[in-house]
Amino acid sequence: MLTGHCLCGAVQYNSQGPTLFSVICHCRDCQRASGSGGVPVLGVPKTSFSYSGPVKQSSVRGGSGLPAVRNFCSECGSLLFGTPESAPDMVTIYVGSLDDSASFSPTDALFTGQRPPWAKLAAQLVEHAAFPER
Ligand SMILES: [Zn+2]
Ligand SMILES: [Zn+2]
C-alpha cells in the first residue's frame, strides 16, 4: 500500500499498487513544474488509486502530443500526481509526496538529453535520451 500527502496535509492519497515502473523524469516540463533537475515518478494503475482533498490540475501538452495533467494541492501547491491522457489507465505519483519515499527504487532515467549536468544521479540507471520506445 502506497500512501502520501501534500505539504499542508489537505490532500491525502493512496494506492494498492502494483508499481508499474519507477523512473526519474528529466524533461524540461518536469523541471519547470517542480523547480528541480528531475522528478522521481512511479506509475500505478488508475483503478488502484484514490485521493481526497482540494486538488487543482494543470494541463500542458506533453511529449506524446496529448495533455500531460499535473495534479497539485490547491492550498499549498505541492505537486502530487500526474494523470497523463497518453496513458489514461495510469496515475503517476511524484515520489517526494509519498509517506515512505525511501522505498522508491528507480530503474531508468528519462529525457537525459534535457537533463542539466548538475542533476546527474549517483545511482546507476538505464538512461533514455527521450521517452523509451517499447
Ligand atoms: Zn496542501
Ligand atoms: Zn517529465
Short structural description:
With 134 residues, the chain is mostly beta strands. 5% of the residues lie in helices and 39% in strands. It starts with a strand and ends in a 7-residue tail after the last strand.
Question: Which secondary structure elements does this structure contain, and how are they paired or packed?
Answer:
Elements: E1 2-5, E2 12-15, E3 21-25, H1 28-34, E4 39-45, E5 49-52, E6 55-61, E7 67-73, E8 79-82, E9 90-94, E10 108-110, E11 126-127
Parallel strand pairs: 3-10, 10-11
Antiparallel strand pairs: 1-2, 2-5, 3-4, 4-9, 6-7, 7-8, 8-9
Bound molecules: zinc ion (2 copies).
Provide the succession of SSEs: EEEHEEEEEEEE
Number of strands: 11
Tally of separate domains: 1
Structural class: mainly beta
Query: Which ranges are low-confidence, i.e. pLDDT below 50, for 5 or more consecutive residues?
Result: none
Beta-strand content: 35-45%
Largest sheet: 8 strands, mixed
Compute the number of helices.
1
CATH topology: Metal Binding Protein, Guanine Nucleotide Exchange Factor, Chain A
What is the CA-atom radius of gyration, in angstroms?
A: 14 Å
CATH first level: which class? Mainly Beta
Question: Judging by the overall fold, what is the CATH architecture?
Answer: Beta Complex
Specify the helix fraction band: under 10%
Q: Note the gap between the termini.
A: 28 Å
Q: What is the 3D form?
A: globular
Mean pLDDT: 94
Strand arrangement across the biggest beta sheet: 6-7-8-9-4-3-10-11
Bound molecules: zinc ion
